[in-house]
Amino acid sequence: MIKYITETTDYLISKGFENPDIGIILGTGLGQLVDEIDILHEVSYNHIPNFPTATVEFHKGKLIYGNLEGKKVVVMQGRFHIYEGYSLQDVTYPVRIMQQLGIHTLLVSNAAGAINLNFKKGELMLIEDHINLQGSSPLAFKGVEHLGERFADMSAPYDADINSKFETIAKEHNINLHKGVYASVVGPQLETRAEYRMLKTIGADAVGMSTVPEIIVANHLKLKAAAVSVLTDECDPNNLKPVDINDILAMAAKAEPDMITLFKELIKNL
């Protein structure tokens, strides 16, 4: 993997991706943040050596480098999921590349279902902690110790200072920002009523199919990390209705302006 990482990093540096401060993974609900970036360079994933390619139709497939609120950022416009057939090492490979390029902070967004019934669809949740239900770890491969501490500490995977800044920004801009625990599952199918009851029992406030692998690797690489979920549906097992992906995308679009405000104001203050 070290050889692949070196090849990918050298290629991106040759394309002008030099010394970014912050890495951003644009999940559902933050795609329009690209419009706020002064883009200096961009490369399609399928042109980057050793890079996976996004297969979800509403996830773009570009790595973007530019200026946002006075900071150099490298942005994943489209992420990878294990439900697409990728390994956890594939899913998290871009985080390793962003770290090699020079980032010190990783910011992530995603779409999630609200397990906590005090949370409503269209609202946002700041992730305070997570539960990994994806069945494995992105650190579970031979030679991982050459890239960082094998037994990565996860006592505080989400940076407390960044989370505090997010909360302050939310108050200043009258954004309803919940806090909670995010459970990450494989997908792509949504959960059954029994699974939603289980998730609530084990302490999850929201459930999704991403983010946790990237956060684990960010901690492995000693990066500061934070993540925000768009709550796109309400997972009440006693009143469960079929969910249409178009409804999920509509809820993400509704929350997007608040999400963009949070991220822009945070980056300004990092």
TrEMBL record:
Q: Does the keyword Magnesium apply?
A: no
Q: Which GO terms describe its molecular function?
A: purine-nucleoside phosphorylase activity
List GO terms (cellular component aspect): cytoplasm
Keywords associated with the record: Glycosyltransferase, Transferase
Q: Which Gene3D superfamilies match?
A: Nucleoside phosphorylase domain (3.40.50.1580)
What residues does the Nucleoside phosphorylase domain cover? 21-268
> Could you tell me the EC number(s) of this protein?
2.4.2.1
Top-rank taxon, per record: Bacteria
Enzyme class at the top of the EC tree? transferase
What InterPro entries does the database record attribute to this sequence? Nucleoside_phosphorylase_d, Nucleoside_phosphorylase_sf, Pur_Nuc_Pase_Ino/Guo-sp, Purine_phosphorylase
What GO biological process terms are annotated to this protein in UniProt?
A: nucleoside metabolic process
The pathway where this protein functions is: Purine metabolism; purine nucleoside salvage
Described by its record, this protein's role is as follows:
The purine nucleoside phosphorylases catalyze the phosphorolytic breakdown of the N-glycosidic bond in the beta-(deoxy)ribonucleoside molecules, with the formation of the corresponding free purine bases and pentose-1-phosphate.
Entry similarity comment:
Belongs to the PNP/MTAP phosphorylase family.
Name the chain's protein. Answer: Purine nucleoside phosphorylase
- Annotated organism of origin: Yeosuana aromativorans
